[in-house]
Task: inverse folding
């Protein structure tokens, strides 16, 4: 799983441009006999193996897309202006390496140097509009030979294993969830399992709604990468999650509230099996569960996440033990789900 | 109505935890409906079959109330909180709140807040009188939700209570279920979940019911208190027929039929135009290929506070208005 995760993060798959990730997942499914299809918006839906002992239909979702930038204007002197794809803090952008467009043209994000900034600029948050991507083009004409308006811009950040079981990479949100679901597809389930690798989560949970309306599940489990602010000067009730303490179970966020039965079942499974877990302590943010829950005639949902420090940046960090425990918890809880729900 | 209202507002039921209020309502209405069931999200759906070749009309009132969710329990046993639905920190300060299991707490704030502008829920907590994390965890776990305390009373022709939003709507539908007889239309009464967190229950309910038209019954703000923002609605001037709010523009057919019913039957009514807020009609009217929808709103002062106030006659007139509406033949 770890190697797959690392490889997944190397791929560029900004919202609306997920094909490389989709291709990788299809090619690397251990079981080549699994039925799968790609829907009109780009979601990859893989049907897991089942022994047919339960009539439940379960959707497990992780999004393939990642945050990044898009070229929206090329200046006379060949610099690229950009807008964001998904939520990005402008402060993390200065000095980043990026890859632009299909040909992955290398670039760096520039800003005027400190001795040219006035007091106000030095003391306030840098505005996106004052940043630019430098691809070392001489002028607009030269730049246009390499890139064009509308090109996606991905962070250029290679995965690195470091510390104790940690990985640094871009796009851990949510290739981590994708990696876990790929493992789940190696198992035989008592119910119909639909593994949904969704698109366009980062720009408004757009793919999940389409997938859920097609799959029409009874239960939706969303596997995510989530905020982890266990860093200096953050109060303990505001950390969201703590790295190394296990996968987090969300009782509520801005897009959905966990179904009580599912929440209690996952909680009890973790306690019974001695799998480390934690409650997410904040209710900010939202994810695919929001759209899955209100799709069709309504779907019971739960979100399980792996803590990611510096999420939505090229240097996200996660603990591989958290990821293993996430796989273990989700697998155990899903196998006993029919019993827990009386189905 | 006050006896019913006291029971309804007293039943625990924040968004996503509507079991108790749902059971309370189900007990009351099941003898008087033809079919009753609960869907995946917890919406309570009760059907009264029509006697003729009428339409299928959905009436929706939400069961859920706002609350404070326990997000983290600290070493000393204090419960950190986040909001479930629209809770103003200024309103929450100093309130007595209660969890599903009857555990009562006080809502307080970090004492180092010197400027009330800094008052935010993440600097507030619930104190249930324990001294240690383990003791709090014996009765409260993260994800448990507390609701305001504030028993319903009737005084000077007004009802005052917590959770009148939208237990008054539930009460109106329950009274209507009792008196409704020989209706040409099929009426599907839906007591919805999770309205307060974004109208989440009503859309899926409408999707599965596929009614010909729908009316949400909810509360709305008024413009009749000292130095308040200008707003046409007043307590006691009748239920309001919604023209628009921030989530819905009422379907003209529904809106006009409601106004027509009020006129014909001499029921006082007001017209509601709101630029903020929304009710279940918002997710109903875009469900299942589109459903003509509107709303009957009960003017309510002090919304989302433990002392919400509505006029008794507005509620009684809403029952009359909805009765006349569902009894009329629909084109």
Result:
């Amino acid at each position: 799983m770890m190697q797959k995760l690392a490889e997944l993060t190397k791929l560029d798959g900004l919202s609306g441009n997920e094909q490389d990730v989709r291709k990788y997942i299809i090619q690397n499914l251990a079981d080549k006999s699994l039925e799968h299809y790609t829907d009109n918006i780009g979601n990859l839906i893989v049907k897991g193996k089942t022994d047919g002992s339960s009539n439940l239909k379960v959707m497990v979702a992780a999004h393939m897309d990642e945050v990044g930038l898009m070229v929206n204007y090329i200046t006379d002197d060949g610099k690229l202006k950009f807008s964001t794809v998904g939520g990005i803090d402008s402060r993390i952008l200065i000095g980043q390496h990026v890859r632009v467009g299909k040909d992955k043209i290398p670039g760096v994000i520039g800003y005027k140097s400190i001795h040219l900034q006035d007091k106000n600029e030095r003391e306030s948050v840098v505005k996106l509009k004052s940043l630019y991507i430098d691809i070392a083009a001489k002028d607009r004409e030269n730049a246009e030979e390499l890139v064009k308006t509308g090109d996606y811009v991905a962070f250029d950040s290679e995965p690195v294993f470091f510390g104790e079981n940690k990985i640094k990479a871009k796009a851990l949100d949510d290739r981590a969830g994708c990696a876990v679901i790929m493992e789940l597809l190696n198992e035989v389930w008592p119910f119909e399992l639909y593994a949904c690798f969704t698109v366009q989560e980062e720009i408004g949970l757009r793919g999940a709604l389409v997938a859920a309306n097609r799959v029409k599940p009874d239960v939706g489990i969303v596997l995510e990468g989530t905020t982890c602010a266990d860093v200096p000067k953050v109060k303990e009730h505001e950390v969201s999650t703590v790295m190394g303490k296990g996968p987090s179970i969300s009782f509520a966020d801005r897009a959905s509230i966990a179904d009580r039965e599912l929440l209690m079942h996952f909680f009890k499974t973790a306690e019974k099996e001695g799998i480390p877990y934690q409650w997410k302590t904040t209710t900010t943010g939202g994810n695919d569960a929001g759209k899955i829950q209100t799709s069709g005639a309504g779907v019971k949902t739960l979100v399980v996440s792996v803590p990611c420090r510096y999420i939505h940046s090229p240097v996200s960090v996660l603990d591989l033990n958290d990821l293993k425990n996430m796989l273990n918890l989700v697998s155990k809880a899903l196998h006993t789900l029919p019993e827990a729900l009386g189905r | 109505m006050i006896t019913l209202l006291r029971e309804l507002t007293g039943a625990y039921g924040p968004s996503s935890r509507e079991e108790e209020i749902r059971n309370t309502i189900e007990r009351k209405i099941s003898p008087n409906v033809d079919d009753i069931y609960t869907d995946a999200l917890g919406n309570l759906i009760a059907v009264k079959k029509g006697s003729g070749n009428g339409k299928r009309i959905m009436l929706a009132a939400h069961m859920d109330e706002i609350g404070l969710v326990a997000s983290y329990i600290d070493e000393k046993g204090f419960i950190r909180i986040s909001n479930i639905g629209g809770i103003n920190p200024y309103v929450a300060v100093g309130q007595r709140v209660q969890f599903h299991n009857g555990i009562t707490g006080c809502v307080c704030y970090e004492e180092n807040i010197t400027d009330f502008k800094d008052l935010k829920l993440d600097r507030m907590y619930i104190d249930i009188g324990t001294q240690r994390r383990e003791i709090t965890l014996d009765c409260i776990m993260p994800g448990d939700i507390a609701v305001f305390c504030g028993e319903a009373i009737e005084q000077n022709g007004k009802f005052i209570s917590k959770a009148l939003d939208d237990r008054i709507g539930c009460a109106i539908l329950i009274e209507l279920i009792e008196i409704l007889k020989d209706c040409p239309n099929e009426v599907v009464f839906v007591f919805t979940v999770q309205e307060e967190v974004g109208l989440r229950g009503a859309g899926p309910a409408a999707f599965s019911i596929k009614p010909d038209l729908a009316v949400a019954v909810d509360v709305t703000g008024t413009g009749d208190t000292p130095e308040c923002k200008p707003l046409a609605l007043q307590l006691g001037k009748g239920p309001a027929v919604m023209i628009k709010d921030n989530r819905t523009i009422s379907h003209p057919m529904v809106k006009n039929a409601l106004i027509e019913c009020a006129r014909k039957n001499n029921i006082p009514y007001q017209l509601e135009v709101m630029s903020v807020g929304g009710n279940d009609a918002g997710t109903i009217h875009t469900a299942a290929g589109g459903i003509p929808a509107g709303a009957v709103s009960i003017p309510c002062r002090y919304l989302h506070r433990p002392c919400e106030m509505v006029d008794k006659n507005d509620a009684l007139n809403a029952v009359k208005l909805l009765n006349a509406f569902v009894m009329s033949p629909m084109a």
Summary: Chain B has two domains: 2-65+162-327, 67-148.
